[in-house]
Amino acid sequence: MTDPTLPPARPAAPTDRETLPVELVDSAGKTVGSCPVAEAHRPPGRPHRAFSVLIFDTAGRTLLQQRAPGKTRFPARWSNTCCGHPAPGVPVAEAAGIRLAEEMGLRVPLTEVGIYSYRAGDPRTGFVEDEWDHVLVGVLDDAQPAPDPAEVADYRWVRPDELRTRLREDPDAFSPWLAGVLEIAAAGPPVPA
């Protein structure tokens, strides 16, 4: 099913995402300024707006991606379907739809289901995540992911209960935000079982 209101699949991505602006936020998620992505993630980190997308299939499995080894934060770890930062003034769902097309080659209607606020340092790269993370979900019917290899090393479908077990057994194999994002998604609108 194609929705003409969704962004086109895989639009051209900027060459250096680290220079793009992000919205800085206060403890209540109110915008208080902006700075480049790289600056927001340098220690000690600056609280900023982000989004995390979890796509489910009609069998209730969720689509995970393994972050590409060249990512500046938490490279090569398994994570949610896609994530990113809306530019200042850009609606979160719109930015998330564009990023989903860029990273995974998918166009899926998205619904925001909550916020996951977290802070995590990457021991490998030294960068810091301090995010007011909007969690969005969508259901994929028959389309297949076509990931951008510069962004995604691998992908797999997994049942949420199996993912929770894996997160407990080997948390360092996953992005530090994934467990919280999964719980926010599970508490949101129902997805196929």
UniProtKB/TrEMBL annotation:
Q: Where is the active site?
A: C83, E131
Q: Give the residue ranges for region: Disordered.
A: 1-20
Keywords annotated in UniProt: Cytoplasm, Isomerase, Isoprene biosynthesis, Magnesium, Manganese, Metal-binding
- Quote the Gene3D superfamilies the UniProt record gives: Nucleoside Triphosphate Pyrophosphohydrolase
Q: Where in the cell is it found?
A: Cytoplasm
Please give the catalytic activity noted in the UniProt record: isopentenyl diphosphate = dimethylallyl diphosphate
Q: Which InterPro entries match?
A: Idi_bact, IsopentenylPP_isomerase_typ1, NUDIX_hydrolase-like_dom_sf, NUDIX_hydrolase_dom
User: Which residues does the UniProt record annotate as the domain Nudix hydrolase?
Assistant: 46-180
How is the co-factor bound, per the entry?
A: Binds 1 Mg(2+) ion per subunit. The magnesium ion binds only when substrate is bound. Binds 1 Mn(2+) ion per subunit.
Which CDD domains does the record associate with it? NUDIX_IPP_Isomerase
Question: Which GO terms of the molecular function aspect are on file?
Answer: isopentenyl-diphosphate delta-isomerase activity
**Where on this chain does Mn(2+) bind?**
H41, H48, H85, E129, E131
Biochemical pathway: Isoprenoid biosynthesis; dimethylallyl diphosphate biosynthesis; dimethylallyl diphosphate from isopentenyl diphosphate: step 1/1
Question: Where, by residue number, does Mg(2+) bind?
Answer: E103
> A Pfam family for this UniProt protein?
NUDIX
Pro residues composition bias: residue spans = 1-11
The cofactor required is:
Mg(2+); Mn(2+)
Superkingdom of origin: Bacteria
So what EC number does this one have? 5.3.3.2
**Protein function:** Catalyzes the 1,3-allylic rearrangement of the homoallylic substrate isopentenyl (IPP) to its highly electrophilic allylic isomer, dimethylallyl diphosphate (DMAPP).
> Which PANTHER family does UniProt cross-reference here?
ISOPENTENYL-DIPHOSPHATE DELTA-ISOMERASE (PTHR10885)
Q: Which NCBIfam families match?
A: IPP_isom_1 (TIGR02150), PRK03759.1 (NF002995)
The similarity annotation says:
Belongs to the IPP isomerase type 1 family.
> What is the name of the protein in this document?
Isopentenyl-diphosphate Delta-isomerase
| Organism encoding this protein | Nocardia rhamnosiphila
